[in-house]
Amino acid sequence: MKHALVPLLVLLNLLPAAAQQHAQRPEPGAKLLAVEVTGSQHYDKNEVLAASGLKLGQAATNADFQNAANALVETGVFTSVSYKYLPLGSGYRLEFTVEDADFLAVHFENFVWFTDQQLKDELKQRVPLFKGEVCATGPMLAGVVDALNGVLSAHGVPGRTYYRMHSRVPGAPVDSVLYLVSDVPMAVVETHFTGVHALTAAELDKISERVLNQNYESTLSYEMVADGLLQLYQQRGYIRAGVDPPQRKLLGENLKLPEISLTYPVTEGAQYKIASIQWSGNNAIPTSVLAPFIKLQPGAVANAIELENEIKEANKAFGARGYLEATVESRTVADDATQTVAYTLHVKEGPQFHMGTVTFQGLDKETESKLRPLWKLKLGDVYDDTYAAAFLKASGVVRTGQLVKIHRNTAPGNVVHLVIEF
Predict the structure, then answer these.
(1) CA nearest 95: which of 120, 69, 113?
(2) How far apart (Å, rounded) are the C-alpha atoms in residues 145 and 163?
(3) What span, in angstroms and rounded, lies between the C-alpha atoms of 201 and 290?
(4) Cross-strand partners of 327
(5) Which of 51, 127, 174, 181 is deepest in the core (most CB within 10 A)?
(6) Cα distance between residue 369 and residue 355, in whole Å
(7) CB 100 within 8 A of CB 248
């Protein structure tokens, strides 16, 4: 006998009809003798049984099984829950089939009075089904907040807990949940670096300014410094360089105004030089046209940042020939024995686009009538993505400081319609 669970409010409306389908029910007084769980990668059967509210050996009815399944749905850690019960001796075996929800890593950003392991241990005691991660949705997110507030209060620490979703870069998928303490200023007052030889003290001081005297958050304090360091190393050919999360030290004993010292472990690795740079996949534009965009040559330090900027300039050549969706991907093969890097610049050209209409907005009729004959990119011409900006610069109608927006709209048939807004 199997009941498919749907969100609770809908489930309650369906329960009477579902109950009528059962020809056989647990006998009054029949005991729950065994529980099995399939489908979960996060929880074993004992954890699911505890979260359901059932206990082995208890007398259980179908209503108890349904309530247990509802309880599992309400935890938010499963996207679906179904169950069936089968005779087992003088009682029943209950089988749950579940599907895990999406889980996210948890970071404790500024709970500087505790180690991460201490907090996780506390949360395992206070939050049902917490095992070091939280569901992307559901009550566990807020449950961790409440539990952390309880930890703070129990240790006489001020502040309140809140959480924030984290993505490594804007627009990227959420990858973790950050839990933070508010209302407690905690400044980073010291930064140290280990394993650094290729950078100067002045460069390290400049990067340290990103976090010094700023309110401490572990993820932000790591990413801001690591990004700055790795950019310098990439410019200098240290392609294997890495930065580990900083080691935190709490200075002083003032719980209300903690001060933080951070030590960043750095692994530089060797400096690499360029072995070769080759183009591939470019059919519309010959290599002889693309090659001059890349100033870096074999034998030079493998400056990944400069190469990236030069690739962006080369990509404009495809836009000028109507290949608006063209991409250039840098593929690297490093030879650790010779400490060299071979680059392949692989092109995906995509379709070629052609000119559609151009519309000028925000101009009086007289100015537009003078401007339009100067526009030389005709309907059906291969679209040049650099033309509009060059046209405006040469037209003389744009005043100093005036903001002009160019809206590019693509249409079926790989046609580009422009709206130039003055």
Answers:
(1) 69
(2) 7
(3) 39
(4) 348
(5) 181
(6) 20
(7) no
| CA–CA gap between residue 162 and residue 184 (Å, rounded) | 13
Contact 36, 54 (CB under 8 A): no
Q: How far apart are CA 248 and CA 246, in angstroms?
A: 6
Residue 210: closest CA among 197, 195, 229, 194: 229
What type of residue is 306?
E
Candidates 319, 314, 321; CA nearest to 295 is: 314
The architecture that CATH gives domain 103-182 is Roll (3.10)
The CATH architecture assigned to 187-267 reads Roll (3.10)
Per-residue three-class SS string for the chain: CEEECCCHHHHHHHHHHHHCCCCCCCCCCCEEEEEEEECCCCCCHHHHHHHHCCCCCCECCHHHHHHHHHHHHHHCCEEEEEEEEEEECCEEEEEEEEEECCEEEEEECCCCCCCHHHHHHHHHHHCCCCCCEEECCCCHHHHHHHHHHHHHHHCCCCCEEEEEEECCCCCCCCCEEEEEEECCCCEEEEEEEECCCCCCHHHHHHHHCCCCCCECCHHHHHHHHHHHHHHHHHHCCCCCCEECCCEEEEECCCCCCCEEEEEEEEECCCCCEEEEEEEECCCCCCHHHHHHHCCCCCCCECCHHHHHHHHHHHHHHHHCCCCCCCEEEEEEEEECCCCEEEEEEEEECCCCCEEEEEEEECCCHHHHHHHHHHCCCCCCCECCCCHHHHHHHHHCCCCCCCCCEEEEEEECCCEEEEEEEC
Tokens matching residue 335: 């030879």
Query: Could you read off the pLDDT of 238-269 as tens digits, one per residue?
Result: 999 999 999 999 998 787 889 999 999 999 99
Chain mean pLDDT for the chain: 90
Q: Cα angle at 205 between 204 and 206, to 5 degrees?
A: 90
CATH fold of 354-421 reads Ubiquitin-like (UB roll) (3.10.20)
Q: What confidence tens digit (pLDDT) does each residue in 163-206 have?
A: 999 998 888 899 999 999 999 999 999 999 999 999 999 999 99
